[in-house]
Design goal:
With 383 residues, the chain is an alpha/beta fold. Strands 1, 2, 3, 4, 5, 6 and 7 form a seven-stranded mixed β-sheet that branches. A five-stranded parallel β-sheet has the order 13-14-15-10-16, with helices on both faces. The protein is elongated and about 80 Å long. Its main location: cytoplasm.
Length: 383
């Protein structure tokens, strides 16, 4: 998710509804020839989301204050800010925000309006506000809005300060955030049908659990998605494209057995740095050290797998999978070989990466209690 704005106000507002996003400031000329306020904010917000070619969902907004059917420009200096507030004192005006959301080739544009009535303001409090609250540092004419000046309003107050997050959330919820779609999957082994007609969707940022009895084919589904096992019928789409078109780094796997998953000839630093080296990443040492801190294994940096417990080894396996910041992780029974205390540490790591990096997980397990603890969605595999 990308917020296309330099506004700290908008950044703080968006954090109320979205936990993980990046900031990109578009370089556009905002002096457009449009007098209609609604058309102005919608057109400008759309120009912003079109300014860069980014695959992620992009959000852009533009907010204006309208008085006497005219858009008020940003005050050029303190005197102009004072005169603008005097003009609005005791008067009604309204705030418009145009918002555009771009996802792929689809652009959704809408606007929100909030009607404001200022109370009567004394000259002293106007001057004091302009001198001490730095309204000129804030973007646009809406920077002079202050909650203490408002007598009444009708609409979203979040809109007044730059982003109508209630309406934005409604529009975002309508978008399809499917990262993986499995359609009518069938797997046959030695003429025996392991499973067939398997279909499900996984949304970005969720922990999607696949549960079922041992031997029913849960791990096979994971291996098919990661690309190490072929399927016989069906279709798998990753980010709306055939799974075969994916980048290897975008989908990683946490395997069940920590004793067979690590190269015994490499120390922990080498194990974590190898994926970064292969993918020609920068700042390798910094990234490895950050991961070691998250895994709580910094003191084992130059130790070898043989020096670690099973739980510590499994944390390294998690780190190997996460070091490239993949979009999707397949976690195949990652806690089944561990004691309860160590299990919880692995689950906590999965929850951490899901929250902090917005990583999507497919969590494969036969343990319903664990699945209930961490899942946002559960798919039960039965014959």
């Amino acid at each position: 998710m990308i917020l296309m704005s330099a506004s700290k106000r908008r950044e703080e507002l968006l954090k109320k509804i979205i936990k993980d996003f990046k900031i990109v400031v578009p370089d556009i000329d905002e002096n457009i020839d449009e007098e209609n306020p609604v058309k102005f904010v919608k057109k400008l917000s759309k120009m912003k989301v079109l300014a860069v070619d980014i695959d992620d969902t992009c959000i852009a907004a533009d907010t204006v204050v309208v008085f006497d059917n005219k858009i008020l420009g940003k005050p050029k200096d303190k005197l102009e800010a004072i005169n603008t507030l005097k003009m609005l004192s005791g008067k009604k005006h309204y705030v418009l925000t145009g918002v555009s959301i771009k996802k792929g080739k689809t652009i959704k544009t809408f606007y929100d309006r909030t009607d404001i009535e200022f109370r009567d303001l004394s000259e002293n409090e106007i001057v004091d506000y302009v001198e001490n609250m730095n309204p000129l540092d804030k973007a646009g004419s809406y920077g002079i809005q202050d909650s203490n000046f408002v007598k009444s309003y009708d609409g979203s107050y979040y809109n007044v300060v730059g982003l109508p997050i209630e309406k934005l959330k409604e529009e975002l919820d309508k978008l399809d955030y499917t990262i993986l779609e499995v359609k009518n999957l069938k797997k046959v082994y030695d003429k025996e049908v392991i499973f067939e007609n398997i279909s499900f969707k996984v949304s970005k940022g969720e922990i999607f659990s696949v549960i079922g009895k041992s031997g029913i084919g849960k791990s096979t589904i994971g291996k098919i998605i990661i690309g190490i096992t072929k399927y016989d019928e069906g279709e798998i789409l990753f980010d709306k494209k055939d799974l075969k078109e994916r980048k290897i780094r975008d989908i990683q796997m946490i395997f069940q057995d920590p004793y067979s998953s690590l190269d015994e000839t490499m120390n922990i630093y080498e194990l974590l740095s190898e994926p970064l080296i292969v993918n020609k990443e920068k700042d390798i040492e910094k990234k490895v050290n950050e991961m070691l801190d998250i895994l709580e294994l910094s003191e084992y940096k130059y130790k070898y797998p043989k020096d670690l417990s099973g739980g510590q080894r499994q944390r390294v396996v998690v780190g190997e999978a996460m070091i490239l910041r993949p979009k999707l992780i397949i976690a195949d029974e990652p806690t089944s070989a561990l004691d309860l205390t160590t299990q919880q540490k692995i689950l906590d790591l999965i929850l951490y990466f899901n929250k902090e990096y917005a990583t999507t997980f497919i969590f494969i397990s036969h343990d319903l209690d664990i699945v209930k603890e961490i899942s946002t969605s559960i798919f039960r595999l039965i014959k």
